Amino acid sequence: MCARCVVREDLESLLKPNFPPDLRLKRLIGILADAGRPESIYTWMNKPAPKRLLTMIGEREVALTHEAFDAYDHSPTAAAHLREILVHHRMLPERRSLPFALFERWLEQRLSELAEWPDIHRPIERFARWHHLKHLRLKLDAGAPNMDTATRSAKQEITEAGKFLRWLLEEHGTAADGLQQAHVDEYLAEGTSTRKHIRNFVHWLHPGRPQRRTITAPHRAAKSMPLLTQSQRIELVRNCLDFEQVTLSTRVAALIFLLWAHPLVKIAALTCDQLEMPPRGMTITLGANPAAVPALVAPLFWEHVASRGNQQTTNTGTDWLFPGFRAGQHIHHQTLSERFLVLGIDPQRARNTTLQDLTREVDARSLIDLLGYSATLIVQHAGRAGVPMSDYVDLRRPPSPT
Questions:
Q1: I need a labelling partner for 4 at 20 to 30 A (CA). Which of 320, 352, 369, 402 fits?
Q2: 320 by DSSP, 3-state: which?
């Protein structure tokens, strides 16, 4: 028997779509069995965690609902993967934001872990619910595209705030009400750099104007700005063009990063319609205005669009320029960062160098509209590059809508 037939037969045995009849299960079997690479489906479905989940669905112990997947504790990863397949193929309704729902679940678990320490639990619960949860809901209502990044940041701040309060209790025998500036200074002076993430928590405890705060946590300023030389940057661009042994999607993403310093989070979330081919040549829309794609690299971009990866299993029919492994999802920005290492790209150095080079070539106002960066960041890089800011008045205007 061929792999496709084996997948179909095994899925029918596990999911039992006819006992009782369930059209969604029949459709799910068809989607998985008809995948471009059925061998991958066979490998996945025979792993212990996915196989257990599929068996429980077949026994009707787990329903095809978001609530049932939320409550499934045996393997959240397997449940998340199958849920995304069902959502992508419209067998489950799309949630407003899965990262937000997962954050709410994580928060409840985190607060339950702190319940035995009331002096830590109370301020952390208020900070999490009245600061982070409130702001995440506002972002969600506004249609923010990067909820995954926002929820990760919120998790880190809540976790670090909990560590800080525990340190305060163990080292000084006091709770949040007894916090003093000396405690904050001592905590930030030692330990890892992640301690800087207590800043929002400290300012939430002591609100008000910066000049009038009795306790504050300063920004952690970078001691240096790592840069590349122009010849090193050109060499990295040449690597993207010549290293044919590297995946084409990685080379195209790296070119977008090296040419326009577009943030990795935004590169990962680019869609195919942001690439256009008008009569004057290819353009890519990264900010308010489209940017011209150099003729030398345009063929690579079209080749990638015509043969995007990660579409041989369940992530089919997607509009993402860089599809991810999971159905309906784009690639994760951390994955891109790791793949750039194969091309010799240090993201921080390359981004700083590219932005400084661009500020020398394009005026700040046009650069803001072109790349979608904030005026503050562009002005900082222009200042470091020694560019005279003759158009500083224009920077106070909002970006052009056209």
A1: 320
A2: strand
Q: Using 50, 70 and 90 to split pLDDT, how confident is the model at 389?
A: low
Cα–Cα distance between 358 and 230 in angstroms, integer?
Answer: 12
How far is residue 318's CA from residue 188's CA, in Å, rounded to a whole number? 45
365 confidence band (pLDDT: 50, 70, 90): confident
What is the structure's pLDDT at 314? 81
CB 37 within 8 A of CB 312: yes
Alpha helices in 134-205 (DSSP H): 134-141, 147-172, 181-189, 199-205
Q: Tokens representing 292?
A: 């011209």
Report the share of the chain in percent with pLDDT over 70.
94
| Three-state SS annotation for 68-103 | HHHHCCCCHHHHHHHHHHHHHCCCCCCCCCHHHHHH
CA angle 94, 41, 64 (to 5 degrees): 35
What Cα–Cα distance (Å) separates residue 397 from each residue in 348, 366, 376, 400? 29, 12, 13, 8
**CB distance 132 to 154 below 8 Å:** yes
CA 112-102-99 angle, to 5 degrees, is 145
Does residue 227 sit in helix, strand or coil? coil
Residue 323 main-chain phi, psi, to 5 deg: -60, 150
The share of the chain scoring above pLDDT 90, in percent, equals 50
DSSP letters, 172-190, are: HS--GGG--HHHHHHHHHS
Q: What is the pTM of this model?
A: 0.76
Half-sphere exposure of 17 (CA within 13 A, CB side): 14
**Helix/strand/coil for 330:** strand
Residue 50's CB is within 10 A of a number of other CB atoms, namely 20
Q: How far is CA 306 from CA 1, 36, 117, 309, 346, in A?
A: 32, 16, 56, 10, 28
- CB contact set of 270 (below 8 Å; sequence gap of 6+): 256, 320, 321, 322, 330
pLDDT digits (tens, 9 = 90+) for 4-37: 999 999 999 999 999 889 999 999 999 999 988 8
* DSSP one-letter code for 323: B
Of the candidates 37, 19, 137, the one whose C-alpha atom is nearest the C-alpha of residue 7 is: 37
Contact 264, 347 (CB under 8 A): yes
